[in-house]
Write a structure and sequence with these properties.
By secondary structure, the chain is of the alpha/beta class. The chain has 17 helices and 13 strands. It binds uracil.
């Protein structure tokens, strides 16, 4: 093997590395032969020098080869579709999309992750449902998708182990927010999990990795290119994360909002994104419908109760209770009222995300425990008119002191002014 120090030096000096060089480095790292300090230096060199599109694919491919792969499509004898979000505040989309898509007859077997920092993770949200099991064996996953239509589980350590190690390292070496590293990390997991068609939800704005539409486009294009090189169909949605998605931010609160949405009673922006993502997944599936028909089928599954029935079967199959009152509620719910009349000009997603994190809904470091009951419910969003004294948000807290601190943080997230504000749609752009 070429000495790692040589590869680090060449990348540091801006050279393009060969596919086999990147492959050896990554596989050597996954086997424990390349130490963390060399991989950290390599990531920092990549951070400053970037990777070409060929190098990014070589990295993705090596990451996939570092572990096992799953062929859910072959096991089910169906075309399998998947979705992924780059992460944001209040993003419970997977929880609502899964049962709707499954109710339409398209298998939905998804591996999800945990949250870190201000972004939430689907597994943490699901664990607010008493009894819900996030770890199923591959056989159990396949069987549940076959019989119930869907499953959402944690990613096994056997799938893309290089990403597990690399993500942990990037997290503590300030090398997470690098475009090629993010796209290789996301796409290696999607490719290894075996989906033939993938809808990627790339979040844009203060609560997202990508703060500008230009950066989000670059990430979308990079992931699209990786997917195509791996022979997968990919559609990227660029969606707004300047304000939280929907109203609820916090694990149990988000599960309840996702369930409301599956019942057709969700917040408008969240419902719109969920139905759009469902329509795109159905159009990519083997159902043989186009986007318009996919949307109509998804809306019907919500309206006729079949999506809700699928939700109940899915949660039960995974050991969770379908008794909504068993989802723990926070002991203190403090309303936050508007101190002036006007229009909500801004509701800063990152500030709401951090407020929820400080209330205990997220973790600062990987080993932190999560309080599933706490969080924030945003009753007014960008473009909404408010009168003095209107409740604009609710703070769900463990105690009064935390509620007080949370209320001032959330108050700082709201800008209420006199300008009329265009409440632009959640879906900003589609790249395919
Ligand atoms: N999500 C991932 O899975 N990986 C990244 O690098 C960033 C977001």
């Amino acid at each position: 093997m070429i000495p790692a120090a040589e590869l680090i030096q060449r990348k540091r000096d801006g050279e393009e590395l060969a596919d086999n060089e990147i492959g050896e480095l990554i596989l050597g790292y996954a086997r424990g032969e390349v130490p963390d300090y060399q991989m950290a230096a390599f990531c920092m060199a990549v951070y400053f020098r970037g990777l070409s599109s060929r190098e990014t694919f070589a990295l993705t491919d090596a990451m996939v080869r570092s572990g096992e792969t799953l062929d859910l499509g072959a096991a089910l004898g169906r075309k399998v579709v998947d979705k992924h979000s780059t992460g944001g505040v209040g993003d419970k989309t997977t929880l609502a999309v899964g049962p709707i898509v499954a109710a339409c007859g398209v298998p939905f077997g998804k591996m999800s992750g945990r949250g870190l920092g201000h972004t939430g993770g689907t597994l943490d949200k699901l664990e607010s449902i008493p009894g819900y099991r996030v770890s199923l064996t591959t056989d159990e996953l396949v069987e549940q998708v076959r019989t119930v239509g869907m499953a959402i589980v944690g990613q096994t350590a056997a799938l893309v182990p290089a990403d597990l190690l690399l993500y942990g390292l990037r997290d503590v070496t300030a090398t997470v927010d690098q475009l090629s590293l993010i796209s290789a990390s996301i796409m290696s997991k999607k490719i290894a999990a075996g989906a033939q068609a993938i809808v990627l939800d790339v979040k844009v704005g203060s609560g997202a990795f990508m703060k500008t539409i230009e950066d989000a486009r670059l990430l979308a294009e990079s992931m699209l290119s990786l997917g195509k090189q791996a022979g997968r169909e990919v559609v990227c949605l660029l969606t707004d994360m300047d304000q939280p998605l929907g109203a609820a931010v916090g694990n149990g609160l988000e599960v309840l909002e996702a369930l409301d949405t599956v019942r057709g009673r969700g917040p408008a922006d969240f419902t719109e994104l969920v139905l759009d993502a469902c329509a795109r997944l159905l159009a990519l599936s083997d159902l043989g419908v186009d986007l318009g028909e996919g949307r109509a089928v998804a809306e019907r599954a919500v309206a006729d109760g079949s999506a809700e029935a699928t939700w109940q079967r899915w949660i039960e199959a995974q050991g969770g209770t379908t008794d909504e009152t068993a989802i723990e509620r926070a002991p203190v719910v403090r309303p936050l009222v508007a101190d002036r009349a006007g229009t909500v000009e801004r509701l800063d997603a990152i500030r709401v995300g951090l407020a929820a994190l400080h209330l205990g809904a997220g973790r600062r470091v990987k080993t932190d425990a999560i309080d599933h009951a706490v969080g924030v419910v945003c009753r007014r969003k960008r473009g909404d008119r408010v009168e003095t004294g209107d409740v604009i948000a609710e703070i769900h807290a463990r105690d009064e002191a935390k509620a007080e601190a949370g209320a001032s943080e959330v108050a700082a997230a709201y800008s209420i002014g006199d300008k009329p504000v265009y409440a632009h749609p959640v879906l900003l752009e589609v790249i395919a």
